Amino acid sequence: MSWYNPIGRNLGMVLIKFAVVVASLAIVSIIWKEYYAIPAELLSAAIVYSVGRILCTSCRRLRRCRLHRRLHLR
Q1: What is the span of the domain harbouring residue 16?
Q2: What is the DSSP string of 19-55?
């Protein structure tokens, strides 16, 4: 087992959750009528989400289930 798989997976999950928090700032911008900030907030949320998604999916490993003979994420 590689030591970086759990670290990369956990970091990816944290980045995905942080992207949701950053995207929620767009709602605050709409409430305060600061429409100029919405594209920057959504762009930064998309970048953070994509990096987190790449980390989370690349650090998962597949294992074969003996009972069903299918591939499952570990």
Answers
A1: 4-59
A2: HHHHHHHHHHHHHTT-GGGHHHHHHHHHHHHHHHHHH
